[in-house]
Amino acid sequence: MTSKNNATGIENDMKNEKQMNGAESLLRTLVNTGVEVCFANPGTSEMHFVSALDRVEGMRPILGLFEGVVTGAADGYARMTGKPAATLLHLGPGMGNGLACLHNARKAGSPVINIIGDHATHHRRFEAPLTSEVETFARTVSHWVRTTRDARSVAADTALAVQAARAHPGQIASLILPADAAWDAAERPAQKLPEAPRAQVSDEAISQVAAILKSKKVAIMLRGDVLEDEGLIAAGRIASLTGARLVCDTYTPKIQKGAGRVKVERLPYRPTPAIEFLKGIEMMVLVGTQPPVAFFAYPGLPNELTPAGCGVMTLSFPHEDGTSALIALADYIGAPPTPTLVRDSLPKFSLGLNALTSAEVGRIVADNLPVNAIICDESITASAGHFAIFDCAAPSDYLQTTGGAIGHGLPMAVGASVACPDRKVIVLEGDGSAMYTIQSLWTMAKEQLDVTVVIYANNTYAILRDELINVGATEGPQASAVFDINGPVIDWVRMANSMGVEAAVASTPSQFSDIFKSAMKYNGPFLIAASV
Amino acid sequence: MTSKNNATGIENDMKNEKQMNGAESLLRTLVNTGVEVCFANPGTSEMHFVSALDRVEGMRPILGLFEGVVTGAADGYARMTGKPAATLLHLGPGMGNGLACLHNARKAGSPVINIIGDHATHHRRFEAPLTSEVETFARTVSHWVRTTRDARSVAADTALAVQAARAHPGQIASLILPADAAWDAAERPAQKLPEAPRAQVSDEAISQVAAILKSKKVAIMLRGDVLEDEGLIAAGRIASLTGARLVCDTYTPKIQKGAGRVKVERLPYRPTPAIEFLKGIEMMVLVGTQPPVAFFAYPGLPNELTPAGCGVMTLSFPHEDGTSALIALADYIGAPPTPTLVRDSLPKFSLGLNALTSAEVGRIVADNLPVNAIICDESITASAGHFAIFDCAAPSDYLQTTGGAIGHGLPMAVGASVACPDRKVIVLEGDGSAMYTIQSLWTMAKEQLDVTVVIYANNTYAILRDELINVGATEGPQASAVFDINGPVIDWVRMANSMGVEAAVASTPSQFSDIFKSAMKYNGPFLIAASV
C-alpha cells in the first residue's frame, strides 16, 4: 500500500481495509487512463469488477442483454469520441458472442478494451463447464491479447492494454482477467502511459504526391479521421485546385456529410460498377486506406478494383497523421484556403401516394434531418442511394458497418448516443440485420438514449437474393426458404414495445414523413417500421 | 463425371450440364453420410450451397435469424437423435455468433458439422471487409477443423468431417468452404466412411469395479448415453444389488427421468453442498465422466469435489461403450434383472393463492407433464428444486445447458423439436438467459414447432446476485445496475407475438396451471411468462 493510495482514501471489501483488490486496481487504472464507460454483460468471474464499480468514481457501467450489444456499442462510442470504452465479458463464450461486432470495430480502426473474466488460475486446469481457451477466442479479433498473471500485475497490464487500444488507428486490446487476479490483493493502480506523437508523413512523400497531382488524373482515396474537420477541408482544398476526385471506401467508419461540407464520392459496392466509377483515373493516392478491393469475389470478376494502367501511391498509411499531411499538401501546392463546399439542396420532392419505397424513406429522412445528427447506416440493399442524398442534407456524421458482420447498426447507435447524448442518432437498419442484435433496443430504453430506429421492413434478406444471382447461382423453393423472413412477418411495433421502446408503422410516404418528423421532436428511443 | 452420377440424373446450373459444383458435392456427401438437417444463417459466400439445396433431395434447411439459434439447434438435434446436423455459417463473424452454443455442444459431447463459408481462395490475401482468420474462430470450439483446398477436395473433406463429428462422444467438426471451392467444378460426392466399432471396456476393468462395489461405499458418476435406456437400467440393477449411489453431473447433456425409471441424484451446484452431498463415499466410479469439479472457483473453497479420502476409478472413459460395460458389470455381480424404479408420486399439492413462485411453476409443470416430453432446462436459479421433482413426474428426456454459456435453452428446443416432431418440448427458461437467443422464437413459429416456453420472469440476473455474495464481493447501486433487467421490464407477450408466437402471462399459481394445461393441448409454439 503506497502513501498515495492512502491519501485518496480508498475503501474496499478486503480483510485489510487499506488494500485494494486486483479488480479495483484495474478499474482505477482504466479511470486514470481516461476510460469512462464500460459496456457490460458480466458473469460470476467478473463480480469483483462489478463490485468495484461502487468504490471507484468515474466509470459508467451500461448493461447489454447480449454481448454483441456491448461490443458494438463500444465501437460506436469509439467512433464518436476517438477514445476507447471498456467492455466486460464473461469467459470464452461471452467473448464469442461479442466477436462479430469486434470484427467490425477492428475493420473500423476503433479503439476498444475488452476485459474478459476467466476462471481462477488454480481452476483452469479442470474441465469445468465454462473452461475454454479464452486467448483463442480473443485472438480472432484482437491486435493485443494478454492474460494477466496475478492481482499485482493487473494495473500494469491494464495500462498497456489502454496504450495498445489507443494506437493509430485504434486497436482491439483484450485483457483476460482470471478470477483470482480480480479478488487477490493488489498494490495500486497504474497511471496512463506517455503517448508517442503520431507518425508524420515526410516532406518528400508530400512533394511526390504534389507532382503527381499536377501531371495525372488523380483520385484521392480517404479513410479514417481525414474524413472529418481539418482533414476533410484540406482534401477539399486540394480537389478545388487540382480537380482530383475525392473518394471513400464503400463502407467507411465515419464521414462528415451534408450541406456546407466537402463532398466525397463513395466507391460502388459491386466490382463492375466500381471499376467503371474509377475509369479514367491515372493515379490513386491513398490517405489512410488501401487500394480498393471487392467486398466479395465473384466468378470471373476481378478482386482488385484499381483500373488497368492506374498507378497507386500512398500519401499516408493508416497509422500516420493523414490530416497534417493533407494540410501540408494543400499548402504546398498553393490550394485556396477554402474548398468547394456542397451548396446544392435536394431537388423538390413531393410525397408519393403509393406504397412506400426505400428511396423515399431515405429522402424523407434527409429532408427532415436535424443539424448535427449521427446516422448509423446498416440498411444494406436499401441504402444504395442514401450516401449521395445525405450530401445535400443537414450536416451529419455518417457511420457504416465496416466489416460486413451484420447486426452492427443498433449497437453502434447505442454507443454513439452514449458518447453524444445531446445529438440525435438515427439508425437506418435492414430488418434482417436488426434481428441479430435486437436486444439493443432494451439498452436504448434503459438508458433513454435519443435514438430513432428506422427499420426497412421488406421481410427478406434482400442482399442474399442479389448475391445469389451475382455469384451465378439459382433460386428454388428450398433456397427461398432461407431468404424470406416473412413467415411469420416480424411485428416491429410489438418487438420494440416489448423492450420498452415506443414504435409505429409507416406504409405510405406521408405516414412515414409524419412519424419521422414527430420522432425528430421526441427525445428518447423510437422505432419506425417502414413497410417497403 | 462418373456414370453413377449420370445415372441419378443430377441437374445443375454450371455451364457443363453434366458436372456438379463443389457445393453440390458437399451437400450430396452430407446426405450420403446420413446428415438430413441443415440449420442455416448463410451469406454471400454460401449461396452456391443454398442453391444446391434445390437440386439435392434429402436435406431440410431451417433458417435461424441469428447464428446462436443455428448452432444451439444443432446441439439439441444431436442430443435427441445421436447424430449430427449441419450448420451453415458465414465467415468468421458468422461463426463467432455461433460459438457460445457450440461451446455448450462441445461440453455435451454432441456431434455437429459446421459448414463455414469463406472468401474465394484468390480473394483471401486482400483485406476485404469480411476477411478474417476463419480457422482461428473455428479452433475455439472445434475438435476438427479443415479448410478445404478446392472443389475437387470438398467431398472427401466432408466425409472426414462427418466421421470426426460422429466419434464417441460426439465432436465439433468445422469445414471451411472457400467460395471458389463451392462454385468450381467437382467430380462426385463421397460415401460415408466405414465406422470403427465403439471401444469396449476390458473384463479386467469390470472385475476391478465389481470388487470395489463389494467392499466400499460407492457413488457411480454417470454421463452420456448411459443415462438412457439399457445403460440406465444396468446402472439401476447395480445400485439395487450393491446400494451404490447413482449420481450425475450438475449439468448433464441428457437424462431420462420420471416415474417407472431409475432414479439418479444430481450433484449440487455449489462446492460446499456438493462435498457434503458426497460425504461418506469411499470410491467414485466414473462412467463417461470425470471426477467432479466446481463450476467456478470461489475464494477459500476447493475446486475438486471428491471428498477427502475418497478414491476415484474409471469404469468407462467418455469414448468407450459405457452401456455395455454397465450391463456386463451388472451381470458379473449377479444383479437382479430389474432395477428399483421410481414408484413415488409427488405429494398432494394445492395451488397457492398468493403470488406465483418458481417452485410452484416447476411443480405445476411436473404435475401436468405429458408422457415422453422433452424438457430443456435453462432456468438457472429457478431450477434448484426441479431436477428432483421431475423424478416423480411422467417420463421425460431432460436436457440442460452443459457449458455454462447461457442462451442455450431456446435454440436447443428448436433442434429437439425438429428431431422429435411428435413429442412436446418444454423449455424452462430464465428471462435473462432467454434474451441472448430470443430470435429462436421466430424459427419456432416458422417451423410451427410444438414447443412450450416457460419464462421465469423475475426481471433480474438472479444468479449474479447469488454469485456476487459467493465470491465475497458486495453490491452497491452501480453493481445493481448490471443485475437488474427491470428498467424496462420485458413484455414477454409482445416479444413472443412480435415473432409470431402466441403467449400469455401468469401471475398466480392457478393462472399458470390453467395456461400450462392449455398449452399442453395446443400444438405449436406457445410462450408463458411466469411472473415469479
How would you sum up this structure, described in words?
Two copies of one chain form a homodimer. By secondary structure, chain A is an alpha/beta fold. Chain A has three domains: 3-183, Thiamin diphosphate (ThDP)-binding fold, Pyr/PP domains (Rossmann fold, 3-Layer(aba) Sandwich); 203-332, TPP-binding domain (Rossmann fold, 3-Layer(aba) Sandwich); 358-531, Rossmann fold, CATH 3.40.50.970. Chain A has helices at residues 3-7, 22-32, 47-52, 67-81, 91-108, 134-139, 154-165, 179-183, 203-215, 229-242, 271-277, 322-332, 358-367, 386-389, 409-419, 431-434, 440-446, 462-470, 477-480, 492-498, 509-521, and strands spanning 37-40, 60-63, 85-90, 112-118, 144-147, 172-178, 218-222, 245-248, 255-257, 265-266, 283-287, 311-316, 373-378, 396-400, 425-430, 451-457, 502-506, 526-531. In chain A, helix 9 packs across helix 12. The longest helix of chain A has 18 residues, at 91-108. Mean pLDDT of chain A is 94; it is low at 1-17. At the A-B interface, helix 3, helix 5, helix 6, helix 8 and helix 17 of A face helix 3, helix 5, helix 6, helix 8 and helix 17 of B.
